[in-house]
Write a structure and sequence with these properties.
Layout: E1 4-6, H1 8-14, E2 29-33, H2 40-52, E3 57-62, H3 67-73, E4 78-81, E5 94-97, H4 106-117, E6 121-124, H5 126-134, H6 138-142, E7 147-150, H7 154-160, H8 165-169, H9 173-184, E8 187-190, E9 196-198, E10 204-207, H10 219-232, H11 237-263, H12 266-282
Parallel strand pairs: 1-10, 2-3, 2-5, 3-4, 5-6, 6-7, 7-8
Antiparallel strand pairs: 8-9, 9-10
The structure holds ligand NPW, adenosine-5'-diphosphate and magnesium ion.
């Protein structure tokens, strides 16, 4: 069922205004478990987008050999080694797992552990979702202690639902999003032109921003950074998901205005996210 559209006016009502005396610790302390050798860029894009959408403190968990790339790519973020990652998850206001994570088998157990132990909001994307599918974690996700947001594209949705991509593509997208909610009990962000956000409460929303210029590598990694950042800043998980997709689409629209749909890159989207946030706050 389609309950409504996600509009800029709605986003304006849920984004937090900053108190004059606010400090970075009040603006969301987030952890991004992302990136691997050959896909460090996904972690860089995710980190930049999180900062451009207002996260106060960003920490990125990567293999140690990637520290120099991450620290050059996102100097504002701190890095932590992903080797035997065992942090106090509760220190973070939101956690993301997945962009460019890679296929290392131990990530399945990591996701299971965070889902079981963490009390904040967890955003699962990309290889986080692929690991969940490969390790049959759907039931673990259903029982997660944390609030869970998943952001699959149709290929990742198919893997979670144990379907072929073509089979998933034949479904009505609202219905497919609903199937994903039933399978995982998560807030589902089913990406694509007109991204859908579907909730365990049975509501479903369609985004109104964005354009085909966003069909470019890394644009989903940017979205994960934005949603995690907004969650960390205290938006309800459903508002973080809905506002995140709308803000991301607006960044794409502002970027396409300036650069055209063909020239727009995911890196541009991270910068445009700042302008999108500014525009939304101006109303
Ligand atoms: N710079 C970096 O570090 C970057 C790193 N990245 C990282 O790469 C990893 C792999 O992620 P991925 O999404 O690229 O590949 P995958 O999960 O195999 O999915 C593709 C499959 O799904 C199908 N498909 C059908 N419809 C689709 C749709 N609408 N949107 C998308 N796919 C659609 C598609 O069909 P086809 O294109 O063949 O028609 C194909 O069969 C992941 O960790 C990610 O974070 C990227 O973020 C890029 C920048
Ligand atoms: N034609 C389109 N119109 C609007 N948005 C799009 C279009 N194509 C892709 N996008 C958006 O771009 C992002 C792509 O995410 P994803 O497929 O995960 O890319 P990547 O893994 O390369 O970062 C999603 O947010 C999706 O909604
Ligand atoms: Mg992706």
């Amino acid at each position: 069922m389609k309950d409504g559209l996600i509009t800029l006016e709605y986003v304006n009502t849920v984004i937090k205004r900053r108190d004059r005396s606010i400090h970075k610790g009040d603006c969301g302390r987030i952890l991004l478990i992302a990136g691997s050798l050959g896909m460090a860029g996904a972690a860089v894009l995710c980190g930049r987008a999180a900062l451009r959408s207002g996260a106060g403190l960003v920490q990125i968990a990567v293999p140690e050999e990637l520290f120099p790339i991450l620290q050059m790519g996102v100097p504002e973020a701190t890095c932590v080694s992903r080797k035997s990652l065992n942090l106090d998850w509760q220190r973070y206001d939101a956690i993301a797992v997945g962009p460019g994570l890679g296929e290392d088998a131990e990530h399945g157990e990591l996701i299971r552990r965070i889902a079981r132990e963490y009390e904040g909001t967890l955003v699962l994307d990309a290889d986080g979702l692929n690991q969940a599918a490969r390790n049959h974690l759907q039931e673990d996700l259903r029982k997660a202690r944390c609030s869970l947001i998943i952001s699959p594209h149709i290929g990742e949705a198919a893997r979670l639902l144990d379907m072929e991509v073509g089979q998933a593509g034949a479904w009505d997208r609202q219905e497919l999003a609903r199937l994903l909610v039933e399978k995982t009990n998560a807030i589902v962000v089913l990406k694509g032109a007109e991204t859908i956000v579907a909730t365990p409460e049975g509501t479903s929303y369609t985004n109104t921003t964005g354009n085909p210029g966003m069909a470019t590598a890394g644009s989903g990694d940017v979205l994960t950074g934005i949603i995690t950042s907004l969650s960390g800043q205290g938006l309800l998980p459903v508002d973080a998901a809905k506002a995140g997709v709308c803000l991301h689409g607006l960044a794409g629209d502002l970027g396409a205005d300036r650069l055209g749909e063909y020239g727009l890159t995911a890196g541009d989207l991270t910068v445009m996210t700042a302008l999108a946030m500014k525009k939304i706050l101006l109303g």
